[in-house]
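User: Reviewer 2 asked us to show a designed sequence for the structure in our supplementary figure. I'm pasting the structure tokens here. Could you produce the per-position amino acids so we can include them in the response letter?
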């Protein structure tokens, strides 16, 4: 009997089956041979929320949640955050290797070439109400790009895919900045391609008649935050991009689905919730009572815990360092003191230790974004800008993967058996 296999005995029939085990998995379709009768559909697995199902093979991002490890294409996140630029990381994720100097220069020029959006986009944005949520604007406009670039539907052409991926990476900051300006009734600032990717975004967002003074430390801090968010393997929004993209729709539509998924408070919206929690606590002296309430089941400590990380989220460690640099420039955010004390108390508490609850990426990021001048509803837009290369890398990988087909989960039907139609007067 081959060692790399699983022997299954079906106690309903007494029959035994042997199923290969490869890469720590069994193929769900191998279970279909397990039947109680010839006309039986065959055994399925039931896995709501994909708690234990690998939906793809991927060479992009590696996470070891128990040991707090995150790597993009094999490179530790700590080294990328310290030494790489965001466009370098985007190239790494999307192309597969770190660029040479010449490749990076060409890549940077190509991205800069595509930063402008059709002027109709500005009219499109003007149609949103003054209080429209920036994530709603971002997902609407990114989806609308498919109507500006109908050639994007030729997803079988590698050169065409490349062009659309660059367009998305290049135009996302422009659209995000325009959404920011629209919320404030400020005129749009168009891309300045003498500036680098981050400086250009900051300029389009904050420039007011030459009064905005660019701050290199804050710009590098923002760049590090975007790098830390650039990919996180098969999370909710990436799975949305892959599932929608598996229908072979254009990438603008697939990525707008990812933005929609990220918009949800269980995914990209948690950093907002951390700020609301710190406001609610209000003062260090209220922390013990707050922790007691959490332990008693009265809510959660936001920014703590993670489905995958069961030790300190490596991104949270790096973000803490970024926070020090940012607050040295902007002055201390009084909420930071509460956050630090909250973390200290929680990490010493048996309740959190037993459940392996540590600060996640969202615990400190909101405080930093706030210090940089972004309003809370804009935090998730910044997350989306960071995640764009990851979505685009995963979309391409999905399309090139011969194992992939249109995503189509099965179900266990729990409804009524067949019954005859009842005329309305008899119901
Ligand atoms: N505060 C207090 N208790 C918690 C917390 C928390 N933040 N997170 C989990 N727990 C407890 C649960 O009550 C549960 O306790 P029990 O075993 O006594 O019932 C146990 O820890 C396990 O919790 P689960 O909900 O099973 O953990 P899961 O992996 O499903 O949840 C999640 C992960 C959603 C991130 C959770 O930890 C949470 O709600 N955290 C707060 C929200 C947050 O910060 N989200 C951002 C995640 S990072 C990101 O998406 C970018």
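Assistant: Here is a per-position design you can include in the supplement:
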């Amino acid at each position: 009997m081959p060692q790399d296999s699983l022997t299954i005995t079906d106690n309903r029939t007494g029959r035994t089956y042997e199923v290969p085990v490869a890469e720590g998995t069994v193929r769900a379709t191998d279970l279909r041979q397990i039947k109680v009768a010839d006309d039986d559909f065959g055994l399925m697995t039931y896995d709501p929320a994909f708690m234990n199902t690998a939906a793809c093979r991927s060479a992009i991002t590696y996470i070891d949640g128990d040991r707090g490890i995150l790597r993009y294409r094999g490179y530790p996140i700590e080294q990328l955050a310290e030494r790489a630029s965001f466009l370098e990381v985007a190239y790494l994720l999307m192309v597969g290797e770190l660029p040479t100097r010449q490749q990076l220069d060409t890549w940077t020029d190509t991205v800069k070439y595509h930063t402008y959006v059709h002027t109709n986009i500005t009219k499109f944005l003007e149609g949103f109400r003054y209080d429209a949520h920036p994530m709603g604007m971002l997902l609407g406009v990114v989806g609308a790009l498919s109507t500006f670039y109908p050639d994007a539907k030729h997803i079988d052409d590698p050169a065409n895919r490349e062009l659309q991926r660059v367009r998305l990476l290049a135009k996302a900051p422009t659209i995000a900045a325009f959404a920011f300006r629209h919320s404030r009734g400020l005129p749009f600032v168009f891309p300045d391609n003498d500036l680098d990717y981050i400086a250009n975004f900051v300029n389009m967002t904050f420039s007011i008649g030459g009064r905005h003074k660019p701050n290199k430390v804050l710009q590098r801090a923002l760049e590090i935050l975007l790098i830390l968010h650039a990919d996180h393997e098969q999370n909710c929004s990436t799975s949305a991009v892959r599932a929608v993209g598996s229908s072979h729709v254009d990438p603008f539509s697939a990525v707008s689905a990812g933005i929609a998924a990220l918009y949800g408070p269980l995914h990209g919206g948690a950093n907002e919730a951390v700020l609301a929690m710190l406001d609610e606590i209000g003062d260090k002296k209220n922390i013990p009572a707050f922790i007691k309430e959490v332990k008693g089941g009265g809510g959660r400590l936001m920014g703590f815990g993670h489905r995958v990380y069961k030790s300190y989220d490596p991104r949270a460690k790096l973000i803490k360092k970024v926070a020090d640099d940012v607050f040295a420039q902007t002055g201390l955010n009084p909420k930071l003191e509460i956050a630090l004390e909250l973390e200290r108390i929680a990490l010493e508490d048996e309740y959190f230790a037993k459940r392996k609850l540590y600060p996640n990426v969202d615990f400190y990021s909101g405080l930093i974004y706030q210090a940089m001048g972004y309003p809370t509803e804009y935090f998730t837009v910044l997350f989306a800008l960071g995640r764009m290369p990851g979505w685009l890398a995963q979309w391409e990988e999905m399309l090139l993967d011969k194992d992939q087909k249109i995503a189509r989960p099965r179900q266990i039907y729990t409804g009524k058996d067949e019954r005859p139609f009842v005329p309305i007067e008899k119901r």
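For the response letter, you might also mention the following. The first strand starts at residue 5 and ends at 10. The domain at 75-264 is CATH 1.10.580.10 (Citrate Synthase; domain 1).
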